[in-house]
Amino acid sequence: MHDRDELAGKLRARLTGSVLVPDDAGFAEVTAGFFNSLVPHRPAVVVAPASQEEVRITVQLAAEAGVPIALSNTGHSQPISIDGAVLIDLRRLDDVQIDPGTATARVGPGTRWGQVVEAAAKFGLAPLCGSSPGVGVIGYTLGGGHSPFFGRLHGWAADQVESMRLVTSDGAARDVTADTDPDLFWALLGAKGNLGVVTSLTFRLIPVTRLYGGGLFFDGSAAPVVLPAWRELTDSAPRELSTSLALMTMPDLPMVPEPLRGRLVLHVRLSHLGSAEEGADLIAPLRAAAPLLLDSVVEMPTTALATIHNDPPASPPALERTALLTDLPDEAIEAVLKAAGPAAEDPVMLLELRHLGGALDEPTQITSAATAQTARYNLLLVALLLPDLSEAVLSPGLDNALARFEPFSEGTTMLNAMGTADASPRGARAAYDDTTYQRLAAVKAQYDPDNLFRFNHNIAPAGN
Question: Distance between CA atoms of 276 and 259, rounded to whole angstroms?
Answer without folding.
Answer: 25
